[in-house]
Amino acid sequence: MVDKLLNRVNTCGYVVFERSKSMTVCTENITKIDYCSIEFKVDSISMLASLKGRLIDLVRSYNIRVGSKKPHSMANFDDGNLLYSDSSTIDKKSAGSLKWQIKKGLVKIEFNGSQCEKIYLNSKGFRDIYTFAVINDAVLRRLDICCDDVSGKYNIRRAKQDYSSGKYNGNTGAKPKSESIKSVGSTFYIGSKLSYKFLRIYDKWAELSLTESHPLYKVWTRHELVLKNQGKIKIPLKALLNPDEIFLGAYPKAHRKFMKGVTPISIERIASIKVSSTVYKKLISLKKQRGRIIKTVRDIFVDDKKLLDVLCRNGVSASLNIPEFTSKEDVKKELSLFFQSNELLKSNEGNQDD
Predict the structure, then answer these.
(1) What Å distances lie between residue 291 and 26, 296, 305, 307, 320, CA to CA?
(2) What does the alpha-carbon distance between residue 15 and residue 153 come to, in Å, rounded to a whole number?
(3) Residues 115 and 193 in one domain
(4) Reported pTM
(5) 224 and 342 belong to one structural domain
(6) Three-state secondary structure call for residue 161
(7) For residue 323, what pLDDT is reported?
(8) Largest interatomic CA distance in the chain
């Protein structure tokens, strides 16, 4: 699936990633899009208004709504709106943004990581977005492609070894610079964040606060390629459907073997683990802040079901939302792996309740 790829510079000076004739197009990608920015250009105000309307119809078909708030970054744009996942009408986390610049006739739509995940959970995936982009002659301004390994084999240590041996070097030019950062887990950068491409390799298990009892603890590593259209690189729209080719072509010497041996993880399980991680963190916080009150009331009620009936109220949490394409049974299964940890049982000390 990931044999021969050519990485060449065309006559216009663009780096072009292309598939060899002997390579079969992938229907199941190992990699996934984690962020994308798509830009459109029109010739008149009326065309801009028409394009905006059709874009809004497109995102609505993915259960994305256009909010009233403006994006935080409006550089080079006149106006815009934040996008929100419509799975919860009170979800405070944005799914991306829609921005426009009337004088230059530019419209840009951006999908962040959480929304890209929900797009994949939709049976259409990026297919309709790709078709719309092609029909309207769009340009991919930025594309983040991630590849998850849960085998533990292609971790940061392995990446550093491959970097030292020159597997991330280009055919020409200087060796890309690297940087290691330790925060929540470790992160290893290859390339400059200011250049048209760089790679971010980090401990995904640490970002999601997986407990020692979870099977992916200290095993799950994410390799994330960031591509920017800065005049030096042309990102083909086809990458929206087949990101594997771009990921491989960016660092072929390192990624060819990596993509053959990687143990991937499904987008459905990623979504379930993220929800489970959020629930687990909130339970720890709840125990620390209100654990003593709950215990006192529990001693009075004795019946746990009656106590929960009293404590629960109708509505949807603004900070905890289960995507509509995520099974509650899958979340329950993942959450049980978190509960095998002793952390909740050990966290008996906390803030004094009111």
Answers:
(1) 51, 9, 17, 14, 20
(2) 30
(3) yes
(4) 0.78
(5) no
(6) helix
(7) 66
(8) 79
In 3-state terms, what secondary structure has residue 21? coil
111 and 158 assigned to the same domain: yes
Residue 146 belongs to some domain of the structure: yes
Q: How many whole angstroms separate alpha carbon 202 and alpha carbon 182?
A: 10
Q: In what order do the strands lie in the sheet with 106-111?
A: 64-66, 79-85, 94-101, 106-111, 32-41, 139-149, 221-228, 197-203, 185-190, 178-183
Residue labelled with tokens 């934040």: 82
173-210 residue pLDDT tens:
889 999 999 988 999 999 999 889 999 999 999 999 99
- Residue 34: which of 300, 274, 279 has the closest Cα? 274
Give the pair of three-digit tokens for residue 235.
Answer: 């990102």
Q: Mark which of 265, 284, 311 sits at the end of a domain.
A: 265
288, 153: one domain? no
Q: Look at residue 345 in the predicted model and tell me its pLDDT.
A: 57
- Whether 322 and 217 map to the same domain: the answer is no
Token pair belonging to 253: 């010497």
Domain endpoint, select from 214, 247, 265: 265
Which residues does the chain have with pLDDT short of 50? 1-27, 88-91, 350-352
* Residues belonging to the chain: 354
DSSP H or E stretch at residue 133 = helix 127-135
Assigned domain for 24 exists = no
Domain carrying residue 272: 268-346
Question: For position 349, what pLDDT does the model report?
Answer: 53
Which amino acid is it at 164?
S
State the number of CA atoms in the 13 A half-sphere of 202 facing the CB: 19
> Would 353 be classed as within a structural domain?
no
- What's the number of domains the chain is made of? 2
Give the pLDDT score at 17.
38
Closest CA to 269 of 144, 115, 94, 121: 121
- Predicted pLDDT at 348: 57
Residue whose C-alpha is closest to residue 220's, from 200, 207, 202, 205: 205
Percentage of the chain beyond pLDDT 90 is 48
Q: Is 16 exposed, middle or buried (0-12, 13-18, 19+ CB in 10 A)?
A: middle
Same domain, 242 and 143: yes
